[in-house]
Amino acid sequence: MTEFAAPWIALAVGVPLLGAGLLSIPALDAQRRFVAVSACAVDLVICLLASAPLPPLIAGIVLVTLLTRPRRAEHDGFFRRALLTQALLLAAFTCRHAALFVPLWWALAVLPLLELRSATEERPATFRFEAAYLLGGAVLLSAGVLLLHLGFAAPGEVLIALAILGRAGMFPFHSWVPAYFGRVAPGPAMLALAPQAAAFAAVLLLLPQARPLPLFLITVSALITSIHAAALGLVQRDARRALAWLFLSQSSGVLVGLASGSAEGLAGGLTIWISCGAAGTGLALALWALEARRGRLHLDRSHGGYDRMPFLASSFLLMGLALVGFPGTLGFVGQELLVDGSAGAGPYAGFLILLATALNGITLLRMYFRLFCGKRGGTPAEQYLRPRERIGFTAIVLLLVLGGLAPRAIVGRSTPSPPPPVREAAPDPGR
Amino acid sequence: MNAEALVRGGVLLGLAGPLGMLAILGALSLAGKPLREAATGYMARWIFLVSTICYGGLLALSPGLSLPVEVTVGRWFGVGSYAFEVVLLADALSLSFAFFAALLCGLVAAFSHRYLHREPGYQRFFLLLALFGVGILLIALAGSIEVAFAGWEFVGLSSALLVAFFHDRALPVKNGLLTFVIYRISDIGIFWAAVLIHHHLRTGRYLDFLGASWPRGEASLDPSQATLVALFLTLAAIGKCAQLPFSSWLPRAMEGPTPSSAIFYGALSVHAGAFLLLRMGPVLDRAPWVAALMVVVGLGTAIHATLVGRVQTDIKSALAYATLTQVGIIFAEIGLGFRWLPLMHMLGHAVLRSVQFLRAPSVLHDFNSVENAVGGHMSRSGIHLERLFPRVFGARMYRFALERNYVEAAIERFAVHPLLGVFRRLDRLESRWVRRAGGKPHD
Fold first, then answer.
1. What pLDDT is stored for residue A97 in this prediction?
2. C-alpha neighbours within 13 Å on the C-beta side of residue B413
3. E strands, A227-327, where?
């Protein structure tokens, strides 16, 4: 990965902070979407100019979320929280020191809780449940970094690995994610997950040392999550929860790839990071757009309305296909690299990943058919996707499809410098 | 121009047309600016005509060309020691299937231009036909398991979306989803076969691990490896070819438009699995148990389908079961070690079934014409067989066939419901945990 130079970091973090600050000015209240989107757009350009792969992903995710956010869903705090999230993520993703990363992790754990609080009007118990996972993970990370600092590397890295698993929603610490999606609107919910801050924590804190035990924990947990989440995604009746499980299952490949120790696996993990981030965000925003027009969506009946929203339906399908690694999309590139990269120790990781992919394809198509097909439906107002919504979805689709057809630009930028050798590849039993 | 350059040019030109059509129709559909019907119809017909000429020409010239010829399109992506090379292979098998695929796609495009005139989904149909065309040509011309896999996915998705073509009705959508579910479950086979091949051999190129030109060749796998790979490939083929126990989707796929029924479920898509197994013949040669399994599955499907087909009351369902019967026999032929016979059988069957499906909407008119020409009612076929069985037995057989030999009911009761039951139990455990730890999980 190309190093993100200090002046660029300052700009990239400062612009969304400035935007968040401007949103506090009462005179700009009527133009809050414009201010927020402008700050994001400028930040995206800065991140692209800095030539690192992940900061543009973060800026892009926040930008399309703000662009496509339904008007009905507006309430004052969201734009400010989104810009703060962007600034914190960019600061975290450009961190090189654990001591600086820990407070950013705490802040990134608190922001989703603020979103949850603003979204739910009752049930403080739900809040406690989510807080236990998110803040508990922050405590684990802090303790792990402290132990590292004190020279207790092995237990410290295990605690850090557990924190990463919790934040990423990996088994057995996954329960908070579908519950969170059930409570918070799809767009903000995906914003808490799609950037994969936990994966970056693994890159920063675990990969340089590459000790076997924490990487083994992460690999096993992620592989179990891929199957477990894929299985549960098949039987969901709520569209939000189905999306949550689908995303968890596919994004577990990021951690599998990062923990694989091979260049192919790392590149695969990073490519999946980008494709899952973009595709997951796109699906969440499409769901959000549908909910704004129809209310909460359930998958035990058909909603129809394809003929009124062919663009949204087609975009949903394309983004979903990219998420599940359909050939010709960026997700396929990442999946191929990941399966090959994780083959060193045997084909079993590849078997599980592809089994999960197969099941997730079923979940995706079930969602597509239920949400857009099955009956003539919809009101005349549904067909009017706003231009900003079209722009947002088009940008995501283009990234996923063009990135899949010509992936070298992304794979090349995602290919990391080889980390220190983790372990020898297992001898091929077939030879 | 030397022979290799001619083959290379022909293969690439034949594939470039459908790829271009897919890109154009896809981009314009997404932009909300579709072509006029006439333009779409012309483009489809001419593109598939060019492909047909390319592959037919190469096939006709094949005795004078030094086949096989491997066509390396380029490196799609790669990191470290891994590279995804797009590799195509021109030999007797691939050119035969590609020629018929392009020909039938072109005929169906020509038929559909009129059949679907002013149909609201006209553009969508041709987009999916382009997707299918690219997929089936990739399966036919693939020079590696990865390229075949990509084509396999294209064919599967386009099939499911065409079954659900009339997507404002519940039943086509339900059947489209069922088709996709079965495809996806059987696709696990090709996924796992590709992983195993790479794991053992570090290559997926056919010429590298299947040896010399088709049908001669020796797989670079030992018998235990070959058995597992062959088993997974057979799983994939069984789903795509609608063999037992995955045959329930084929009759339901008749919900789609007649042209798609013709090309997908009569001609090409339903033979894709058999084609893959023919290509992997050297692997099957090292896996006699899997070959025996194929014979059992194929013959079992043929018997099942011929019984069930006799009690169907609509022409497309009857044709679907007739297709199943023949594909089952093709499966058995491959399992018995034949290579040219199943290829000829497959191609002849594809053409015949396409014609039958395309004529299906006119079958009553055709039947009346024949009876008018004959001057009386036609006798029912199979009466001589019915006379062999006691009446009571016949009635039971009729009921048995009407229930599709209880195969679907058994699968649903002993496989699908228990598995979904496990998943739902896990979901309830999750909900219970969330409820206990704090609040209801969702509304």
1. 87
2. 5
3. none
d(CA A161, nearest CA chain B) in Å: 23
pLDDT at site A417: 47
**Alpha carbon distance B62, B99 (integer Å):** 13
Contact: A354, B181; criterion CB under 8 Å: no
Based on its alpha-carbon atoms, the radius of gyration of chain A, rounded to whole angstroms, reads 20
Any bridge partners for residue B71, and if so which?
Answer: B88
Residue B423 and residue A232: Cβ atoms within 8 Å?
A: yes
Q: How far apart are CA B159 and CA A401, in angstroms?
A: 21
Judged by CB atoms closer than 8 Å, whether chains meet at A369 and B177 is answered as: yes
CA distance A41 to A81: 16
Given phi > 0 = left and psi -120 to 50 = alpha, else beta, which region is A328? left
Q: What is the maximum alpha-carbon separation in chain B?
A: 80
Cα–Cα distance for residue pair B35/B24, rounded to 1 Å: 9
Per-residue pLDDT tens over the stretch B217-230:
888 888 999 999 99
Mutation to test the B interface, candidates A1, A264, A348, A373, most B Cβ within 10 Å: A373
- Do residue A428 and residue B79 have CB atoms under 8 angstroms apart? no
pTM greater than 0.90: yes
Q: Which of B80, B146, B164 sits opposite A262 (nearest CB)?
A: B80
Residue with tokens 């086949």: B67
Whole-angstrom distance, CA of residue A244 vs CA of residue A23: 30
B421 CB-near residues (< 8 Å, 6+ apart): none
DSSP 8-class letter at A300 = T
d(CA A141, CA A135): 10
Q: Which residues pair with A345 in a beta bridge?
A: none
Tens of pLDDT, residue by residue over A255-298, are 999 998 888 899 999 999 999 999 999 999 999 999 988 889 99
Do the Cβ atoms of B127 and B66 come closer than 8 Å? no
Question: Which of B171, B442, B443 is the best mutation test for A, with the most CBs of A within 10 A?
Answer: B442
Q: pLDDT tens digits, residue range B76-115?
A: 998 888 889 999 999 999 999 999 999 999 999 999 999 9
Closest approach of A428 to chain B, Cα-based (Å) = 7
- Which residues in chain B are contacts of A241 at CB distance < 8 A? 441-442
Interface predicted TM-score (ipTM): 0.92
Beta-carbon separation of B181 and A351 below 8 A: no
Any residues with CB less than 8 A from the CB of A18 and at least 6 apart, and which? A39
Closest C-alpha to A34, from A94, A72, A90, A83: A83
Q: At what angle do helices A239-260 and A330-341 cross, to 10 degrees?
A: 40
Residue type, A46: I
Cβ distance of B192 and A340 shorter than 8 Å: no
The C-alpha of B18 sits at a distance from chain A's nearest C-alpha, in angstroms, of 15
For the packed helices A239-260 and A310-323, what is the interaxial angle rounded to 10 degrees?
A: 30
Q: Which of A229, A202, A201 is nearest to A215 (CA)?
A: A202
DSSP per residue, A365-410:
HHHHHHHH-SSS---GGGG---HHHHHHHHHHHHHHHHHHHSTHHH
Kindly tell me the sign of the dihedral angle through the C-alpha atoms of B432, B434, B439, B442: negative
pLDDT band, very low/low/confident/very high, at B393 (cuts 50, 70, 90): confident
Q: Would the CB atoms of A127 and B438 count as touching at under 8 Å?
A: yes
* Closest CA–CA distance from residue B423 to any residue of chain A (Å): 6
Cα dihedral B214, B216, B222, B226 in deg (nearest 10): 40
Length in residues, chain B: 443
* Greatest Cα pair distance in chain A: 72
Contact A148, A98 (CB under 8 A): yes
- In terms of DSSP bridges, do strands B69-79 and B82-90 run parallel, antiparallel, or are they unpaired? antiparallel
